[in-house]
Amino acid sequence: GKRKTYEAMRFRATLSDSATFTNVLHVLEKLGQTCLINFRPKLVNFYLTEHFSQSGQAFAELPVEGIFSEYRIESKSNNEIPVLVNIPNLCRATKSGERASKVVMKLTKKDGRAYMTFEITESVSIVQDVPVSLQPIKKLDEYAEPDLPEPEVQVRMPNLGALKSVIERMSSISDVLTVKASSEGKLMFQVETETVTVRTFYKGMQVKDSEEKVEASARMSIKKFQKLLHARVLTAQYMLACFVAGQAFVLHIKLRESKGTVTCYVPLLADV
To answer: Is 196 in contact with 173 (CB distance < 8 Å)?
Structure first.
């Protein structure tokens, strides 16, 4: 069948920073395979659709002007277009555009199915169709960020590349990771068994000077924590570890040059 455009819904944009777009997808892909993306006039929002208690959740918000140029969107729902997409499929298309001179994304339909079509201009032109499933706006409510209280403690995260090797060694000792932090900027990662305890300390990680000393602790699956470390591919202005008492460990990332934010939630294990 031939590609057609939708009548009451139009989306066409030039992807000017496909590296950031692809890297954000890569981080989400480590946490789940399916993603709801809501294209809006000024922002693009990503919602990872795995169930929180099983694997955690992740959200990203990228400003249109940081990632796209020549952006045009129209729909009957406030000019928003939410689509469900398989992340690896979308990654393949955006990655092949990283060295291209131009990448145009547009919503098309073929044989009654919706696609995000990528027109990639290099020495030769490539067209890739990524199947998407159009969603009603009210579907967004199901994917809202968890409504959590303010974190007790927030500290800066150390370099994730260096932390990765620390955590890899720890994962051979135990499946459970304990992370502790204080408002004075101390951060500790710990695993333990009946016979051995291994800890790694960081200091000077405070976000702001605090009046009183507040401490927080979080126990989680070390495998789930390791998945967050893929965020090292992002060029971040800062990464914060946020401790929400008894509920979640949250990694909040602000991208450089106002390119947006990525937030990942890891569910906690009950204290033994």
So the answer is: yes
| Residue 171, SS3 per DSSP | helix
Instruction: Give the rounded distance of the alpha carbon of 161 from its chain centre.
Output: 17
Helix 87-96 crosses helix 18-29 at what angle (to 10 degrees)? 150
Q: What is the pLDDT of residue 52?
A: 53
The structure tokens 């135990």 sit at 174
Which residues face 242 on adjacent strands? 154, 250
The set of residues, in sequence order, having a beta carbon less than 8 Å from that of 25 and lying 6+ positions away, is 35, 46, 87, 90, 91, 94
This prediction has a pTM of: 0.93
Cβ contacts of 144 within 8 Å, gap of 6 or more? none
C-alpha count within 13 angstroms, C-beta hemisphere, residue 230: 18
Contacts with 96 (C-beta within 8 Å, 6 or more apart), sequence order? 118, 120, 126, 128
CB 248, CB 268: distance < 8 Å: yes
CB 58 within 8 A of CB 264: yes
- pLDDT average per 10 residues of sequence, the chain (272 residues): 80 94 94 93 90 74 96 96 96 88 95 95 91 94 86 95 96 97 96 97 89 93 94 96 92 96 92 62
Nearest to 205 by CA among 188, 222, 191: 188
